[in-house]
Every structure is written in structure tokens, then in C-alpha cells.
Queue: 2 jobs
Job 1
Amino acid sequence: MKKRQSQIAYMLLCILLPVLLLTGCGQKQPEEMAQADETVEIPMILTVSPSSGKKSEQDVVDAFNTAYQGKYHIAVEWIMETEEEYRQNLKRLNVTDKLPAVITDLRMLPSYYRLMIEDHRIVDLAPYIEADPEWKQMIEPVVLDGCSEPDGSVYLSPISTAAFSCSGIFWNEELFAQAGIEEFPQTWEEFWSCCEKLQAKAITPLGLHTEGTGWSAMLLATAEMADSEEGAAFMNELYPSSYQNDCIYHMADTLQRLYKYTTKDAMNADFDVAYNNFVAGKVAMVANGYWMIDQLPEEFREKVRFSPFPGNKLVSSPETFGWAVVDSYSEEVKQGAIEFLKFRTAENQKLKEELFARDTDASRLLQDYIRAYRGQPQIVPNYQVKWNSVLQERTLGEALPALAQKKITQADFVRMLGESVTESKKEE
Amino acid sequence: MKKQKTRSGIQRKYIKYTVALLLLALLLSCGGVSWVVQKNQETVMMDTYNTMCENLGASLDLLYEKTDEVTADCITYDSVQKSLRSSAMSGTQRSALSKYFAYINLDDVAEYCYVDNKKNVYTKSYSKLTFHAFRESGMEQFLKGSYATTKWFWTEDTLFGTGQEALFVGRYVHNMDYVHEPGMLFLKMDPAFLQEIAGSEKNLDPGVLMQITDADGAVCFQSGTKTESKNTLSYVQERISAAKGTGMIISREKTGNGMLCAYRQKDSGMTISIFVPDFVLYAGMGKILTVLVMIFLLVMLFAVILSVYFSKRLSLPIQKISKKMAGFHGNDYTRMEELHTRTELDQIGHSYNEMLGNIEQLVTEVKSQEKELRTVEVNMLLNQMNPHFLYNTLDTIYMLARINKEETTMRMIQALSKYLRLSLSKGEEIVTVADELENVKSYMEIQQIRNADLFRYEIHCDEETQQERMLKLILQPLVENAIKYGFDSQEHYRIEITIRREKEELVLSVYNSGTPITPDACEKINGLMQLPIADMKNSFQSRKNGYGIVNVLTRLRLTYEDQLSFYVISKEDGTTFVIRIPRQV
């Protein structure tokens, strides 16, 4: 009996010892990896203004990321580039298949915009807008028209209103007062006279530049051209087949005249030079749009006023604010991007309602803008939307400095613009 | 006679169990340590090769990014862009563009081919590749479905005519500004291009199988001299084909004969896999186990030697005790020598010696008692005379004394007759106090006749007390003792017997007015109750001295055990013996 018990004890020992030995050797496997974040990342590239350091469109991006936290996230790569550099970068990103999911400024590049449509690189948003009455209802007809293609497709997601797309003249009230000018000139004659008065007081009247499409000078020149019936009609033409006309000749004349009233550093400079001169108080006027109000330093903003171009004209093409969705992304990313664009439309509508409801509480500069917008101005289309890419991206960059420095005549300028049409047609 | 080996059984068992336990420990430790070491080695090796696979994957990523960057530079290069515009480039411009690709910042480009949208083919100067040959090569199909993504593909070189399989990097080239037909760029990579990845890992064991496969599972690169069987290779390929996703698609996967890990490059679809066979995974285990077993065997050897040594130190005294005990036959009481092991064995040896002493004493006593028993038996035989014969004889003597008018003789015979009647008392041990007093009275009368009435005696006992029962023949020896030692020829020598009841006790006292007992004798008698019964008789020098008292006390202790008191009181006017016994209900 005892022998039997001993055998059982030995067996238990043999079983328990390895168990005890091995129990201590066990090692817990690391915890399972946490589940992957299911937030859909929507890549986007936006600029940081080299002149003001302000991040463009940050408010709407932040608002969307907050509202859609956990579902969608706009992953912005902030790059410090001028608008011109950004637009050229878009082209490089396209041919290397590295475009972000949402792209801006597409309408400023007419041929590139066409390329993107024909290569099916961007999503037609019309079905989404049509299927979403809430979204469609937010968009002013003029804006939707501007963003629509002749066949009804919509590649540029419209903002809600044209109210924030207008360009006019920002002017320094203090410098005007120094020249004894109390009111902004209402006519072009008065405008030229104003420039003279400012110059007489050693104040440079205009902040201009020649790089890119010569935005600031071209705004003034095209607004002035639209002062005549022919000029206004020409500005409404899409991709004019010829620039050989009196209006363009007159515009060349105006441009040459405008550059007489600007700084020496305007030549071969981009818009940031003109802007910096204006903010530094070196020039009395600079032509630009609503979006510059927020970019101005707060203390300087108090000195600045906004007025329509003489003859009560504002330059506006709301489709330039249309953003596109790149088609090569996955359906869920594209869906998120479209949701973001709708969110942007709603934010734009909300902004207009808030701003126009409390215009008396707004800053004086903002009140100036609202007053100008409500003053039944003549809307002159943005030349960047209407004119061909060769003209904008190459011809103007070459012709404007030459014209300003009188290295070419007005006739030469007109001829160069005409050649751009030929070249452009050749590539089409 | 064959000499029997005197190895201790305890030592043998101790060593047997020690060896068994050590063997068990060796087996379990070897098993446990081997298992742990094997697991650790496996974990370490798997981690190492998994990390290596990730690193190689990262190298593959970098290589892809490099080709992507370089081809992106080609696409955005002004002359390339110009070649896609409507206007044709001049011959010089085309020649310059052909040379441009020879200087791109990418190593191991064996051949290149750029085809613009005007059917112009740009290659190395010696190459005579025509657009038709390009079309015939079917290379364009590898770019289908992409806009301008960098494509890697492993295919037979139909473009440059070598017919050998090679890695190609291809990409559509679009114009940045205008809508035009895209051009196409193809770079044929030298085998060194992929070898560079394997070369980045210097610690790759030659036994490890490393493969780079394309999206269709074709092997583009393979390293490892001790290649595995076809089954293993096909298993690896099947497993990679079945794995979905990108990045580390297979991590530390244990198969039947090795470990597999694989990394799929997200853009090219190329997969880099590492198969580590078991003989690499567990290399070094044999050495570890050999060293382990050697260490355990050494430990076991030392343990056995020490066990033998230490067990001998303990087993020798045990053997000594065992031998002594086995050799004891009851005659030889010689003590064994004291042990000095500083263990309980010393006490065992000492106790054994004490036990021997006790046994010797007991044997002596038993022998003595046997002797006494034989004497008693003889006496018993003598006492077996017929009491009636004795009484009749005494009656006859009494009648003769009466005829002869010898009064003293008549008294003596009457007293002796009474004395004998009680002494015999039909063999009963317990008698009434009255009978006991009658017995002692007869004895004292005989003594008075013998000693010519030289002493007086008094007996004090009430009627009720006389009915109590007690052990017989207790008082007579005490009186005898008083007459024997106390009588000093004084004129008024007196013996006084008192029996009374005290609660549950019967108190018997015998007083004599003779010479008081000596203090030494008094002390000895009073100390008798503390001695063992057997030792009482040794308290007196002479066997005759105190024999009566010892006899009485022995009988009392055997009858009443520890419920009695017996003591002597010695005073100037005499000596009193007191006995306290329990009353018998």
C-alpha cells in the first residue's frame, strides 16, 4: 500500500515540476495592436502667404475637421509659396500623379483646367449637387453658372455667394489725406488726377508688379477697359480669338500709364512686393479682392479703405474660388472631399449672412466692401478666367515689364497678345 | 566464508534516491531550459529576421521612391515637356534629349527608352530602337490603367532584344499645360539594382532564403546558397500570393520547417520575403544543450561524491548502533562508546546506553524476585500443614496444662491459638479492625508471658471503628518492632495502640514509650514512601533491620497504592508509627 502511495507521489512530482518550471518561463505576448484609426484622411495642399504668414483657408479646414472628427480629416500640407508658384506646382503634381485630393485655383489656369477635365483627372460634381437640394439651394445662381461647363458638368465646387469674390482698390486714407484727397475718385479722370496729386506730394500712388499675370495692374487696366461698352463686351468674351482691337490697344496704353505711378521694385516682381509696399505705407493704393481684408495687419487695417474701381466697377468671377476633387483617389476619400466642399459652401453662406446682417458692427474696411458690393457696381469678369493660358502664363510675364519700361510699344503689346492666341490654338 | 559487504542500507537508499532525484532534475532542467532557450532563440531570431525584412522592405520603398523622383524629374524636364507640345523639336534638340536620360541620377540603369507623342524614340546612342519595334515589344501594356504612376514590372526584355527577364521602370509622361497624347518612359534596370537591397544586409546567413517577387509571384531576385526544397519554395510563393495588403504582409510566421516573413511594397507590388530554415533558426542550440548537459553531469558527479561522503558520516554511527543492537543477546551489558556526530544520533547512542543500564538492573531485580519467589513457594509448601491438626494439638497441650494446673502455659496456648487463627484467617487479606486488634492483643499477651509482664499495653478503639475493614497483620509487625527496638527495661514501658476514623480515613497509630527512634532511622522510614517499592528494602544496611516495617509498607502500598500515608513521629517520650489508609465502604 505504502509502495503504491510512493509511486503516486513520484508521478505527481514528475508532473508538477515541469509545470512549475515552465509556468515561470511563460511570457505574455504583447497586447494586440489597437484598432487602426478609421478616420478618412483627405490630403490637401494650401499656401502660407509669404508676405503675411497667414495660412489660407485655415478657418474652413479647422471647422470641417472639428465637425467631422473621427470620420474625415483634411490633412493639409502647408507650403509657403506665392499663388503663382502654387499653381505651377499643381501642374507638376498632376504629371507625377501626386495631386492632393482637393485642389484650388484650378480656374486660374485655363489650359490646365481643360487638361484636367479632358484627362478625367477631376470629378464632375454636378450629379452630387443635383442629388443634394440642400447644397444646391445654398449656391447663388450666378456662382453656379460661373462654375458650370457648357455641357452642364460642374468640376469646380461652387462657393455660396459672389459677395466675397470681388476685387476693387484698397487705399491708404492717411496718404490720401496728406495729398489733400478726401474722397476716392469716382471716375477714371479723377483717378489719374488723384495719382498726380499723390505723386506731387512724393507719395507713390500705386502698388504694382509684373510677374505672374500682373494681377494688380491687370485688375486696374481691365476695369478701366470695361468703362467703355466695347471694352465691357470684350471682357465678357471667353478665350477671345483675337486681341487685335482698340480696347486692348487702350488697355496697353492704360498699363503703361499705370506703371508710371508705381515703385521701381515693381518690375519683375510678384504681387507680394506690391502688397508689402502698401502695408509699409510706401504706396497709396493696391488693387486686390475681399480676401486681402483678413490678411492686412490689424493696426494697419484702420488706415485702409476699400472702393470700387472708378466708374463703380468690381472685378469678379466667383468660379475662380471653385475647388476640385481629384478623381484618382478612392471612393471614400472622394466622398469625404465632396462632403468638405459642401461644408465650405455652407460656411460661405453662413459668413455672408452673418456679415451682411451686422454690417454696421463690422470694421470700416469691411463696411466699405459691403457698401461697394451693395452699390450696384458693374461686375467686370476676371481676365484670368476669360483669357487663354499662354497669354496669362507667358505673354503677360514677358510683355508687362517691357511695356512698363517702354521697351515695347502698345502695338507690340497687342501683337504679343495676339500671338498668344495663335500659340494657344496650336496646342489645343 | 564470503565476506559480506557492510554498506549501510540507509546510505544505499539515500544515494539511490539522490541520484534518481538528480536525474529527474537533470531531465526536467534540460527539458525546461532547452524549451526556454529554444523559445528565446526562436523569438530572437524571428525578431531579427523580421526586422531585417522590414529594413529590406524600407530599402525597397526607398528604391521605389528614388525611381519615382528620378522619373518625375524626367517628366518635368523642360525638353521632355517640349517634346510633348504640338511643335516638333529639332534634330539637335532630340539628340540632346536622348543624351539627357543617360545622365539621370539613378544607378544601375542598363537601358532607357523614351517615346514622345510624335513617335520619336529616345534611347542610348548605340541603340537603333524604332517606334515600330517599341510598339511590337508590348511594353505599353504595363502602363495601362495608370495616369503617371511609376510602374515596376518584371518581364522578358522584348524592348532591347536581350530576351532575358529584367526589371523595368515605366511611366506615362503627360504635358503639364495642354491636353496632348502622353509619352512613355522605360528604364531597364541592371540585376545589380535589386542586388543592392540584399547587399544592404551584411548579416544575412547563407542558409536564409531571400526572394524579391513581383506582383504576379515571379522571382526577380533570390539569394541564399543552401536553398530549400521545391516544396518549401512553392509554399513560400503560395503563401505570399495568398497574403493581401501592403507593408509587412507576413510577420514571424512559423511553418513546418522554418519561419517566413514578407514585406510588400505598396506602389510597385514587389514583395521581399525571407525564409529562415529551422537549422538557421535554431543554430547554436546543440552547443547550448551540450554545455548544459555537461554542466548537469558535473553537478551530478559532485553531488554523488558529496552524498557518499556526507551519508557515510551519518551512516557509520548508525551502522555502529545497528551492529551493537544486533549483537545484544542479553548477557553482555557493555556500553557502546559515546557518539560525536553532533546530530540526534548522539542522543540515540546515549539513550541506548541508558536503556542497557535499565535492562541490566531490571534483569537483576527479576532474578532476585525469582529467587524470593522460590523461597516463598517453599514456605508456602511448609505452611500447607493442616490447621485442624495444629489446633487439636494445641487443645491437647492446653488440656495437659490444665490437668497439671499450669496457668501460664494455659494462657500462652490460648493466646497463640487466637493469634494463629487470625494470621491464617482462612486466607483472607482484608479483615475487620476488631480481628486485627484481637491478633495484636494475642501477640502482646504472648510477649508479656515471655517477658514476665515487663510492659503494659493499651488499645483505644471505639465499637464502630472496630467494624471497619483493613489489611490484616499490619499492627503486629509494628508492635514487634516496638518491643524489639523500644524496650529499654524501664519500669513503666508502655505500648499504646489507637485506631480512629478521620472523615474518609482510618488512622492507625502505634506508640511506645521506650527509647525514641534515632533521627537517621526516622528519616529513612519517612523517606520510604518516596522510593520505588523495589528499592525500599535497600534503605537499611542489614537485611534484618527494618524488614518488618518494609514488609508492612510493601503490602500497604501494593493494596492501597498512593492512597495511604505512613510516617513515624519521634519524640523524647517515645516513638509513634502512624498509618493512614482509606476507609472501605
Job 2
Amino acid sequence: MATKMKIKKAKDGGYQALVLAKHPMETGNRKDKKTGKKIPKHFIQTMTFHLNGTPVAQANLSQGVSKNPLIGVSLSGANSGDKVSVNWIDNTGGTGSVEATVKSRQPWKD
Amino acid sequence: MKRRILLKGTAASASLVAAAAAGLLIPFRLLAGDWPQTAFESDDAGDAIKDYFGDAAVVDSDQVVIKAPLQAENGAVVPIKVTTTLANVESMAIIVEKNPMPFVASLDVLSGASGAIFSTRVKMGQTSPVTCLVKAGGKLHRASQVVKVTVGGCGG
């Protein structure tokens, strides 16, 4: 299950991390068409965001979050060159992670 | 070109190994806080809010802005974005009032983050108010918006 991240500039001048995790996020209510049995709950529970190794935010998700969750979190105090890493864990113990570096355009040099 | 890709791959995997060694890849769930199970499993929005945020006064605030469609084309994927200009944000939550389990997502803001933006895509069972609560300065700041859900068809 792949997890991707994009770091964008946010309107307030800071940065925003957008994480897209491939995950079914099953509610536990859907029925398997072949067996007629309910497909068990399977969803990401926590997704933790780290800036240069320090956890800065933790998103708590539930089965009410859509499949392949796209989670956006602002990173205040992030500077170009900082390392952002995100890892998540789901209710069955499955995990995923992704890392990226904050980049900004180089200003024109005189 | 191939040499570059090889070097990039080596560097990436090396940093991954270093990160793993440093313990960065271990889920930080215990450090940041456990998954708030009671809130998420509650079928009552009010109880879930009390469980997650504790007893804090709720005030309607225009410093919490919800960006959500007025009408969702697909109830399985409704994009919700919460932005706030409040200072000292501790946590925020997204509640879909008419869902069987209304407490859908939350964010714990740890020191060093602003909590200014939180966005996700949620499932909505039916037309419902979507409420966002932001805990800052000991109070719960609330904003709410009704999102219409049309099941199938092109709206209207």
C-alpha cells in the first residue's frame, strides 16, 4: 500500500503537507457480494506528522473517512530543507509511511 | 541517467535505514496519544465531543472556516477543509452529525505546529450538517455547514 506526500506552500506563508494513503478504509458494513458476509472494519486509525524527527501533529481517523484518504495538515515553522515524515497505523496493525523534504524555489541571485 | 537513479535510490534507502535505526519509522502513536476510541465509536455527537475534548465551553466562531461543497456529488468522498486563524490550537474535530458514528476525524496539534489547516475527505450517509470544532485557549470554537448529499443522479 503506497503512501504519497506533497508539500505545498500554504496561504499564510507556511507549508502544508498533503498525504495520500492507499487504503480501503472499510466501515465494516459493506457485504462481500460472493459470500454475503460483512467485510470487517479496516481503516487507518492514526497518522502522525513529524518535522525533522519531532512529532508535530497526529490525525485520528475513522471508518467515516473516505477510501484512499487525502489528509492535509499545516506545518508551521517549516523551512526549506526540513524533513517531513508521516507514518500511519491502522486497526489491524498495518502501517505505512512517507518522507519528503520541504523545498522552495531559489530566488534570483543578483 | 541510470547512475543518477541508482545514486538517488541508494541515498533514499540509506536515509530510510538511518531513519528506521533512529526510531523514526516506529509509529509514534503512544508518544502523541492513543486513538480516541470512545469518541469514534459513539453514536451521539454530543457524547463524542465531551469524550474527546472534555468539558469546555462551546462558542460559535468565525475564526473557524469550513470549506465544503454545498452539495456533494458523491457521499462516499466529500472533501472537508478546516482553516482557522486562532492561536494555540490544541486539537480539532470534524463531525458529520447525521452519520451513525458522527465523530469522523480529529487532529491533535502538538507543540511546534499551528493547526491552521486540516483537510480530509469523509463519507456522508445523508444530507447533514458538518460541524468543525477547534479547541484553542480552553474553549471549543465551532463552525458548521450543511452539506447536501444526493445518492445517485446529478443533484437537484
